[in-house]
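Format notes (please read before filing issues)

Several people have asked whether sequences and structure tokens are stored in separate files. They are not. Every record keeps both together, in the order shown below: the sequence lines, then the token lines. Line labels are part of the format and must not be stripped during preprocessing.
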Amino acid sequence: MPAPAQQAHHILLLTGPATNRPEEAAIAQWVQQLEATGRFSVSVVSITSNGAPALANLPGSDFHAVLAITGQCDPLPQAHANGLAKFIQSGGGLVALHHAASSLAASEELTKLLGVSTTHQSPTPFDFKVRFTQQARDAAHTIATRCDAFTLHDTLLTVEHDKDATVFAVTHIDGRDTPIGLTRKADKGHIAYLAAGGTPQALQNPHLFRMAERALRHVCGESSDKKIGVGIIGYGGAFSMGKLHAEALNAQHGCKTVAVCDSDPDRAKQAKTDLGDSIKTYTKYQDLLADDKVDLVILILPHNIHAEVSIAASNAGKHVVTEKPFCITLDEADAMIAAADKAGTMLSCFHNRRWDGDFQQMLTLIHAGEIGEVFHADAATGGWGMPNNWWRASKPISGGVLYDWGAHYIDWLLNFIPKPIESVSGILHKHLWHNTTNEDYALITIRFQGGVSATLEQGQLVAVPRAGWRILGTQGGLTNAGPEQQVTLIKHSLGSRSEAKLDKQEPNWHSYYQNVANHLIMDEPLIVTATQARRAIAILELAEKSHEQGGQPLPLPGEDTYTPDYLFPI
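Then the structure lines:
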């Protein structure tokens, strides 16, 4: 978990009158999420009741900023608007959402400080794309750095603003860009205005919350100028994985690959050709771990040495990302996590395929309740053919047939079915391909709390392949069978059935490292945690132990590390 700020910013959250206020649950969720970051303490007041004296008394108070989510309501009384104006002039911060621009415009002085005026362009909510401006990205703006465009369902305002404002987010409507987010300096204080958050649904959008949370950090004087030096251990030849990881990290503002280690001197030399002569190269990982320019280490190594090098990196005070699978055994996973916890460093696993287009589509549909309650999921990958004779097909090194693609599929399953695990059973076969030591075929069955079940089939003895997913819910199902992995949504109700093939959505794998960078530089929550990666390894190891006991279902040892916030990436 990210370390909390040394001193929490005290925030006054100003809401509208009860009759016009956005949904109470959305406001309560914002308060909970803000305080959960450890960076904020929040006091909530209403614009028409206890909020009035609080605003009048802001100058000289211990508040650092005001967050105004007022909805559409009458302007503030003059005296209270003046109190807010003096608070900003003396160095306080203000983040105003949507209609707050008009509800706060009670005095000429406050209007001048805010520097915006708004009119309704579309009072009816609809979907529009919010994107961050290149100017703000190039300037490493606190709110815009390392953020992707997102879709928001909201009412749209036309915003007029002073020329000295920095527009960091826009939407493209009717052939032109309309400002959605801007910041400006106002005397000694700072102001951020977001022309969004006009509906309860919009306030529940995680991307909008992140934008507002960053806006609060901005007006409270925080910046995002921290730098992360990256070292890659195992630059490798297969699939150019070292180069791909380095380029993905270098694309994140604040991150730069500074060192590479590979036991083959020729591959270390190739890193200089790929990444530039300034890259330091090593042939022993211990030497790279001693490099004080390296803050984050990426492990692209055979699976059986992930644990050894990860623990050494944590002991050296480095943050760690392992390629998948995380490791081979549960004992290894526990030792890795213990070392990172002791060092106070980050530990994650490169489950980049959570950002596959089809996975994101299916997860979104499940979250939206489109197929009702999920009660079963089938996943399958593989075919019929002799495996290549290399380390990935060697069971002592790779862990077995399940530890390559199987690690991704198990991670997907655990996101589709966010429930505690009751038992795991496995069947493994070795019939034909004796040129390698990995199994020919594997079948895992997982039973979750409440009788929900899932299976994974994988191998190279599958003469009748059925690659893809089949997810069953109480009101329909999902599949992505076929080479294009196009998602099909099937919905049922009494007497009717509908089937819709969804447009293919491209993967967005860079979001994995975008999140890692945001976690390390801005203390934002880490999406792929070590405890989640541990959970997948526990299932893979239990499947083999179950096979050794005749396929008997086995419980996870100890308490399942499932947590309800396992899920949805932003």
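For reference, the curators noted about this record: Confidence is low (pLDDT under 50) at residues 1-5. The chain has three domains: 9-219, 228-350, 353-509+529-566.
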